[in-house]
Amino acid sequence: MVGTKMGLLIIVGDLAEFLYNLDNTDEEEIEDYKEIYRSLDRFLLRCGLPGHKKPESVELPYRGESDNFSYSSIHYLRRAYVHMCKGFEVIPFDGEYASKDRLLAAEYDSPSIYSHLVYHSDCEGFYVPVNFPSPLIPAVEDDVLGGIVGSSYCLLRELVSVAPFLDIQLEGGDLSEYMLKKLLIDRERDCHPFKIERMVWFTLFECARKSIEYKTAIRFG
């Protein structure tokens, strides 16, 4: 589901949606859009991984997740994840810019955990439904949008690991109907101390889950 862009837009199945809503789009624009994914596919193959052929037709379920939020919001979730990995207490961020948090800023400057959640562009790029241990860094000549490619599988595992620290309970690796409703109600009421972290978590969780199930990349834009 794609809404009006107000910041970071996170999309699954964007090529299929683009092709479905062509209107007056000319052939050159269509080929340019497809070439973005051809470049990604070629890069993955050069890395010795399965390529990624983006589906041109796919229908994805929607459970109420946001599809865009401010660029700064993703740093709240990354901060929580880094604090968890470093063995520090995960508490709500009390400051102006989560990206300036001491532990998170240090991780950005000198990565030590090589997290697919943390080590990724803030504004554009991909997660693909391919399992590989560390984020991939394309060369300039690879012409891959965003400069870093993450794995949807690894992203999902990281989101599952941090969920309990954000007061999110999973059953069998998924949200129960009760937890799903609670996330939506808490977001609407704007009342949970981890409200930003949970909003971003829910969006990325849904994207990673759908990316794996429907074999389609997540795109930041």
Give the tags.
221 residues; alpha+beta; 5-stranded mixed β-sheet; 5 strands; globular
Summarize the structure.
By secondary structure, this protein is of the alpha+beta class.
Please tell me about this protein's structure.
There is one protein chain. By secondary structure, this protein is an alpha+beta fold. Helix content is 42%, strand content 8%. Strands 2-1-5-3-4 form a 5-stranded mixed sheet. The chain is globular, with a radius of gyration of 17 Å.
- Biggest β-sheet: strands ordered side by side in the sheet: 2-1-5-3-4
Helix content: 40-55%
Question: What about the largest sheet?
Answer: 5 strands, mixed
Give the termini separation. Answer: 14 Å
Question: Would you count the extended β strands for me?
Answer: 5
* Poorly predicted ranges: 1-5
Query: Gyration radius, to the nearest Å?
Result: 17 Å
Q: What is the element string, with H for helices and E for strands?
A: EHHEHHEEHHHE
State mean pLDDT (0 to 100 scale): 93
Strand content: 5-15%
Oligomeric state of the chains in view: single chain
| Shape category | globular
Write the layout of secondary structure elements.
Elements lengths: L7 E5 L1 H7 L6 H20 L21 E2 L3 H13 L16 H8 L15 E4 L20 E3 H11 L14 H13 L5 H20 L3 E3 L1
Helix pairs in contact: 3-7, 5-7
